[in-house]
Amino acid sequence: MQKPWQLSRRTILRGAGASIALPWLDAMATSPTRANPVTSGPPVRLAFFYVPNGVNMDTWRPSSDSSLDELPPTLKALQPIKDKVTVISGLAADHCDGNVASHEPAGGGFLVGAKCKHSEEPEVGGVSIDQVAAREIGLRTPIDSLALGIDPGHRGDHGYSGTYMSHISWRSKTTPAALEMNPRELYNRLFRGKQPKQPDWTKSSEEVEATLSESSIEKSILDLARDDTKSLQRRLGYSDQRKLEEYLDGIRNIERQIALASKDSESHHREAFRDAPPVSGHDEDSDSRLGEIIIPDGKGIPKVYADHVNLMLDMLVLAFQTDTTRLASFLFSYEKSGRAYPEIDASGSHHSTSHHGKKEENLVQLTRINTHHIDLFARMLTRMSQIREGERTLLDNVMICYGSGISDGNKHNHDDLPILVAGGAGGTLTGGRHLLFKEKTPICNLYVDMLQRAGIDKSSFGDSTGRLVGLS
Length: 472
Description:
With 472 residues, this protein is α/β, with parallel strands linked by helices. It has a domain at 45-181 and 326-453: Alkaline Phosphatase, subunit A (3-Layer(aba) Sandwich), CATH 3.40.720. The chain has helices at 57-60, 103-109, 129-137, 163-166, 183-191, 205-214, 221-224, 226-233, 238-261, 268-272, 305-321, 350-354, 360-385, 443-453, and strands spanning 12-15, 18-21, 45-50, 85-92, 146-149, 327-331, 388-389, 392-393, 398-403, 419-422, 433-442. The strands form three sheets. The protein has a seven-stranded mixed beta sheet with strand order 5-6-3-9-10-4-11, with helices on both faces. A two-stranded antiparallel ribbon has the order 1-2. α5 (183-191) runs parallel beside α11, α9 (238-261) runs antiparallel to α11 (305-321) and α11 (305-321) packs parallel to α13. The longest helix is centred in the C-terminal third of the chain and has 26 residues, at 360-385. The relative contact order is 0.21.
């Protein structure tokens, strides 16, 4: 039966100085009795998650070569949604192999598919895969892509730019996508329609404080758009009313978290890197020293690392849910990170721990760090699985690559990478599997596959040899 009315996918809630994009609602589906006989639906969103310093492969790799009946220790948190997860073994990123270093080209080249220039002035091999996609489908959304991260980087070593380690998304050979780390700024960008502004260093401290007060989110954008919200809810069916209420509750929860974080005197960065030791434990880095960490303003950044990650990922979910963007990249920390995780009993430098030397105490701490990252990732996937989009869920309509440009941090090898894919890619991808591909299969084959599942007609990228046959 034809619906009496249909809601545009671009409908937004408006209020005094505020606008809110909407999630996918049943009322947005195109009726088959209308002029267009093809039923529309939510698009496929793509994301690329990066973890630094490789992983403990012994606790990452599934024991079965075909199924995920028994998840390895590091991946246990994925159990509730493992039917939407595919672990992939055998992929390689030869383009991440540097002349005299491993970490810099691993980070900078991971999504580029070509080698980084050995130079202190950053120059990668081309546009990264997320930005290739952004040029095709990014123009259909208010924000073409998001580049999100948690930690600032440090200087490079061995003649390589440090920019390679803190940026995996590149808009051109010499221009990385601006990394969003501050939840307050990201929130305002996504839901207030304001771009981050260049600070005016000529202002007095009083003027700066006044500016911060003006940008405060103490008055909820939901309050500003209250009348428009009530009007829309009266027109929606019961199922859509519930979806809208859950979505608005999500926004309200993020506002509360940011308000609490803004009261912190300093962020988690200062404590996590306070005692980061000199880099040691591998010949390549024997003469290296970690540069000073760049500490961002703590305003709006939680004191606990996990809270920061969860807050950023909650906003990513909302950005996908509202079709504010369809593309994102996320760094759990920069490549070669010396972050400590005392809250999970991993108080040593992550980088130094990854040079485990097969020592049991190092491998145990490395597994804790790897597992912590997966736990946070699984939380986001679970949230996506609870958000309905027509006959499927948001998790069904994403395709997310999670992995690293380094396999074993002690060897610094770029083959047999720790890679998994999450989501249903619009119903085209079946999970619950461990796929073992031929050694040295280019990871760029996976990237090509992701593009095609998002409706982008591209048959090659970087050093790909085609699509990743067998993933479906």
